[in-house]
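User: Run a structure prediction on this.
Assistant: Running it now.
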Amino acid sequence: MSPRSSDAPQRVIDAAAQMLARVGLNATSIREVTKLAEAPLGSTYHHFPGGKQELLARATTMAGDKVEALLIELLKGGAVQGVRQFLALWRERLLRTAFRAGCPVLAAAVEEPVEAMPSQPRAAAAAVFVRWQGHLAEAFVADGHEPAAANGLASLVIASVEGAVAMSRAQQDIAPFDQVAAQLLKAAAPPA
């Protein structure tokens, strides 16, 4: 059975997020995204009149929303437990994909688009990181950290996880991720 055309826009957004995670911003083409999504190329331009920039910004936001919902759920058990579970999920993803998939939000944040225009995906990534940081900071405050320290700790978690994922992908080895994860869990512990 072929995919329904009514859900084609969502399939295209999902495929774009997958490609961002695997090949990055500039290597993600609308033509390849539509192939992966099994969607018609022409209707993709109809649904995303802003072209690649609009599509990748929407994919970045969608990927960020999914992680945000996951973070909110994981942090219900406390900051340390939430961070531990989040790290475990990332570890499993790295291993399951043989280090081929990273974070689509990071890909949108770090690559300069080939087109000479402001980056919609980068702006979407910035908004996503702010939301993630806010949720983590709230959880750290609830665990007894001072607000300023909680905000810094939240930034440390996001930057460290993103960097550890990148290092493990580059080295094709889980060791960098495991080293960073161990340090993050120590840093996340409630103050004495």
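The chain has one domain: 5-188.
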